């Protein structure tokens, strides 16, 4: 058989589990619900505890079903190793909990998933300093770096306004300065983009979104791309330097964020995500082609004030998206002209479901300023370019014509 990297994206995912022995020739990795894992020999038990022999100990630190999913994510991202968490937020929390200390500084994109932004605010009250920058221009990132900077954090395509970070240049800057570059790849997914190609050291994925895809399980992951030199990172405890340096970061994250903090993913959710992942390329292709068609239709409509979608030539970072991403993603947002009430428009949709979440098979719509960005207030919304009428659409896999018809009919009173 060929090695996994010689196969295409979907083939590799479909056949990944079978590369390791599975009981009874099972095609899927079974769901292991055991909380603890026993050994016949006391010395072997001790050796597993001491990290000398690979093996499972207690479900909080790892589980065979979750490990099979971690393996798939690592393959998708072409990384060194991955750790799964209970949610995408748990993965981001894990990163900060395990790697940052009092006095450290983060340079973060200002265009962020709302809860990540809120988490950074919590950290800034706990001794970690944050600088938020417009990461669409590397110059802003470079200007914010201080001797205390420990990481630069960006998303690929920001939600809901779809700004794209200056990914290649920020990657080059971090490499030059020896800084850990963390990329939240949720909006693109490893199918559309691999952050390793622009020098990311750690990659975040909210598996809840496109990778699971069916909106029925929460999960998140961190992947070590293998590019970052952990010997240059001052916050690794001596305890976690027993393995080769390439593993230091993930060894510390597994110990601090899973063992100590307990943000662990359960085996049933891991199984749901793994099954969803098998069809992600097919779903994402349909979502992207639907989103492009919808964005073009809305842009041509004179009742629409603005459409934000990286696939449109009018998008400020269209050239970056065209160069780096396989397609332009399933998320778009648009603003209605004055006189059209966004609540009335949304209420007339028959197919667009009034709900948050992204990357679902079904099209989901939400009035951004009045829901997910309500808590931050009008001043911050204006600063982030979020209009009061902004509607976010997470485009699903419905038949294109049905979807376009629905968004067109919703203009009529
Ligand atoms: C949804 C999302 C998260 C958080 O994932 P959850 O699984 O909902 O906790 C993090 N980052 C981005 C970009 C997201 O869209």
Quickly list its features.
binds pyridoxal-5'-phosphate, alpha/beta, 12 strands, 413 residues, 36% helix, globular, Aspartate Aminotransferase, domain 2, Aspartate Aminotransferase, domain 1
Summarize the structure in words.
The strands form 2 sheets. A 7-stranded mixed beta sheet has the order 1-7-6-5-4-2-3, with helices on both faces. Strands 8-9-12-11-10 form a 5-stranded mixed beta sheet, with helices on one face. The chain folds into 2 domains: 4-277, Type I PLP-dependent aspartate aminotransferase-like (Major domain) (Aspartate Aminotransferase, domain 2, 3-Layer(aba) Sandwich), CATH 3.40.640.10; 285-409, Alpha-Beta Complex (Aspartate Aminotransferase, domain 1), CATH 3.90.1150.10. It is built from 15 helices and 12 strands. Helix 3 runs parallel beside helix 10 and helix 4 packs across helix 9. Strand 5 (180-184), helix 8 (189-192) and strand 6 (202-206) form a beta-alpha-beta unit. The N and C termini lie far apart (60 Å). It is α/β, with parallel strands linked by helices and 413 residues long. The radius of gyration is 22 Å and the shape is globular. Bound molecules: pyridoxal-5'-phosphate. Pyridoxal-5'-phosphate binds at residues 87-89, 113, 116, 155, 159, 184, 186-187, 206, 208-209, 218, 220, 358.
């Amino acid at each position: 058989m060929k090695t996994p990297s010689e196969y295409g994206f979907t083939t590799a995912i479909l056949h990944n589990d079978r590369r390791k022995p599975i009981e009874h020739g099972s095609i899927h990795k079974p769901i292991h619900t055991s909380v603890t894992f026993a050994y016949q020999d006391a010395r072997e038990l001790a050796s597993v505890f001491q990290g000398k022999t690979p093996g499972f100990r207690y479900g909080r630190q790892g589980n065979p079903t979750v490990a099979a999913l971690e393996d798939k994510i690592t393959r998708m991202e072409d990384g060194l190793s991955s750790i799964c968490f209970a949610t995408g937020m748990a993965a981001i929390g894990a990163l900060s909990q395990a790697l940052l200390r009092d006095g450290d500084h983060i340079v973060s994109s200002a265009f962020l998933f709302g809860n990540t932004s809120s988490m950074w605010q919590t950290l800034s009250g706990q001794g970690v300093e944050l600088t938020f920058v417009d990461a669409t221009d590397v110059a802003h990132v470079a200007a914010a770096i201080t001797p205390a900077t420990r990481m630069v954090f960006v998303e690929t395509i920001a939600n809901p306004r779809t700004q794209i970070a200056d990914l290649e240049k920020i990657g080059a800057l971090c490499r030059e300065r020896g800084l850990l570059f963390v990329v939240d790849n949720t909006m693109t997914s490893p199918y559309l983009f691999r952050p390793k190609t622009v020098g990311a050291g750690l990659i975040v994925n909210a598996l809840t979104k496109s990778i699971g895809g069916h909106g029925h399980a929460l999960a998140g992951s961190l992947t070590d791309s293998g590019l970052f030199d952990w010997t240059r990172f001052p916050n690794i405890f001596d305890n976690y330097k027993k393995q080769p340096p390439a593993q230091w970061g993930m060894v510390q994250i597994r110990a601090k964020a899973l063992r100590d903090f307990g943000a662990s993913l359960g085996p049933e959710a891991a199984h749901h995500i793994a099954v969803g992942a098998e069809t992600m390329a097919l779903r994402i292709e349909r979502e992207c082609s639907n989103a492009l068609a919808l964005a073009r239709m809305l842009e041509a409509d004179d009742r629409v004030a603005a459409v934000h979608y990286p696939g449109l030539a009018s998008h400020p970072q269209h050239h970056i998206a065209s160069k780096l991403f396989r397609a332009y993603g399933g998320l778009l947002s648009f603003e209605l002209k004055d006189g059209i009430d966004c609540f009335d428009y949304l209420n007339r949709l028959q197919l667009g479901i009034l709900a948050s979440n992204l990357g679902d098979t079904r099209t989901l719509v939400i009035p951004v300023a009045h829901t997910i960005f309500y808590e931050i207030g009008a001043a911050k919304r204006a600063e982030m370019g979020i209009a009061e009428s902004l509607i976010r659409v997470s485009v699903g896999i419905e038949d294109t014509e049905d979807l376009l018809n629905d968004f067109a009919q919703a203009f009529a009173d």
